[in-house]
Amino acid sequence: MKNTECVAFLQWALPQRDMRWPGFRKVRRQVCRRIGRRLCELGLPDVAAYRAYLEQNTAEWHVLDSACRITISRFYRDRNVFESLQNAVLPVLARAAIERGASELSCLSVGCASGEEAYSLKLLWEFQLARVHTALELRVSAIDSHPKMLERARRGCYQAGSLEDLPEAWRRSAFEPSDSVYCLRRQFRNGVCFTHGDVRHTLPAGPFDLVLCRNLVFTYFVESLQRKILGHLHARMHEAAALVVGIHESLPEHCIGFRPWDAVRCTYRRIQGP
Ligand SMILES: C[S@@+](CC[C@H](N)C(=O)[O-])C[C@H]1O[C@@H](n2cnc3c(N)ncnc32)[C@H](O)[C@@H]1O
Questions:
Q1: Is 69 exposed, middle or buried (0-12, 13-18, 19+ CB in 10 A)?
Q2: Ligand 1 pocket mutation pick from 121, 144, 203 by most atoms within 8 angstroms of CB
């Protein structure tokens, strides 16, 4: 399939699923390869035939939806974000939780892939902050729509390449080598819970102190859907909770209910809604 044909097809199809083409520009080859494989499975000659097929078979939109899921992640992705969480954001959230009389700091990872983000947060807490905030446990709920990713997340075993950005000492003490992979020790998996779900329709109940919503909603979804999901997140967050987005992402303009966290990139503080 020619790149130009696939791009034209994506520009037609994505908005119909509330997804935005610019978010897919960099990853289009991966998505086009998957669509090419689907054409072979269906015995269709080209994307024009696939477009006609989609118009007649509404169930096929779900297949296309899965072909558009980008699952790249790694531990401690964007190290600066985790350093800001450690130094600026989590201490503030922990103090607020203690003042409320809470015994848990409750976090959410949206589009958690194989658990890298959720477990990175847990490792950060256990290695850096737990000894300071002894009265608080960190709990992480994590949601993804891809069953295979969740299976891997629950297994907690990773290739060495996924762990490269983690501080070396954490890697050595938190993971056990097993065959050709590294498996996270049980103590670091406790308190991290994975749920299958599509964030367009469902989110865990909360209330959360911290939401990591990186490299999904604000890259791949159209603005109206971003605003809708933001509203749902807002309703599930504690007053003054934190929302972290990807380093190349930002919230839609004039967004009500969140304002940038002072001097911390990619991070917003929940404020009173409309
Ligand atoms: C690019 S990864 C981002 C992983 C992690 N947040 C990070 O920044 O490293 C996006 C994840 O979102 C999941 N995803 C895609 N569409 C979704 C949806 N509608 N609902 C829930 N998860 C979704 C994908 O399966 C994938 O694991």
A1: middle
A2: 144
Which residues are CB-neighbours of 253 under 8 A, at least 6 positions away?
Answer: none
Q: Is 73 in the pocket of ligand 1 (CB under 6 A)?
A: yes
Q: What are phi and psi of 230, to 5 degrees?
A: -60, -40
Residue 270 sits at the vertex; the CA angle it makes with 70 and 117, to the nearest 5 degrees, is 30
Q: Report all structural domains of the chain as residue ranges with CATH numbers, in order of start.
A: 3-67 (no CATH), 79-270 (3.40.50.150)
- CA gap 29, 217 in Å, rounded: 20
How does pLDDT run across 55-104, given as a tens digit for each residue?
999 999 999 999 999 999 999 999 999 999 999 999 999 999 999 999 99
DSSP state of 182: E
Atom of ligand 1 minimally distant from the CA of 114: 27
State if residue 68 touches ligand 1 by the CB under 6 angstroms criterion: no
Which residues are registered as beta bridge partners of 107? 140, 210
If you average pLDDT over residues 253-271, what whole number do you get?
A: 94
Going by pLDDT thresholds of 50, 70 and 90, the confidence category of residue 274 is low
- Does any ligand 1 atom lie closer than 6 A to the CB of residue 211? no
Q: Is 216 exposed, middle or buried (CB count within 10 Å of its CB: 0-12, 13-18, 19+)?
A: buried
Q: Report the C-alpha gap between 160 and 153 in whole angstroms.
A: 15
Cα–ligand 1 centroid distance for 97 (angstroms): 28
Ligand 1 in contact with 72 (CB < 6 A)? yes
Residue with tokens 């009389």: 101
pLDDT at residue 254, rounded to an integer: 87
Name the residue at shortest CA distance from atom 12 of ligand 1. 111
